Structure to design on (97 residues):
């Protein structure tokens, strides 16, 4: 069972390959994603890493929380389920109801 981790304070210049390599120290990385701003295409400074087992995920948290990457200290936690959000307001002036 794959376990997803939240990774905060990721350097804005980091690539998904670098994030993958950084977490590979702790075990088998299934995927590594850096969240990008949809309007600017630039990194938002956080991402998600999927480890292959619960034990590897726990090991990654112990090893890599507060570890340095690109001059920034990473924050690593178990990812929480995404919360449902209400409809977003359209700021163009139209009414959306």
């Amino acid at each position: 069972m794959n376990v997803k981790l939240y990774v905060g304070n990721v350097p804005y210049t980091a690539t998904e390959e670098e994030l993958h390599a950084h977490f590979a120290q702790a075990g088998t990385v299934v995927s590594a994603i850096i969240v990008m701003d949809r309007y600017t295409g630039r990194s938002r400074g956080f991402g998600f890493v999927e480890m292959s087992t619960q034990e590897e995920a726990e090991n990654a948290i112990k090893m890599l929380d507060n570890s340095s990457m690109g001059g920034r200290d990473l924050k690593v936690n178990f990812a929480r389920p995404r919360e449902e959000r209400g409809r977003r307001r359209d700021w163009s002036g139209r009414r959306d109801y």
About this structure: The chain has a mean pLDDT of 92.
